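Let us practice reading a record.
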Amino acid sequence: MDGGLIVQPAAAKANVESAIIYGLSSVLHERVTIKDGVVEQSNFHDYSVMRMSDLPEEMTVQFVDVDTRPTGLGEIGNPFVGAALSNAFYRLTSRRLRHLPFTPGRVLETLKT
């Protein structure tokens, strides 16, 4: 990650890790469904997000060492997750996942075609 000069490395690392986890959750689990014009999910009991048991055991975050001004990180770790998983799946299977979230059903359907 290139966040410019990293002023608080521990906070920056935690920010990027949490953004990656949020990205994984949105790509693999999260889905809002609407029935009769109303969102069906009302809280975490019926809206699937990643839990601690779903997370990778290890995550490595590295920052580009630069001497520019601090620029901030925001949710920089989130946007690339879907593309990274889709590309890894393609490298493994030669098939493209094109619709988020990558649910088990969608993955199996893609493998069948």
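A brief commentary: Residues 9-28 form the longest helix (20 residues).
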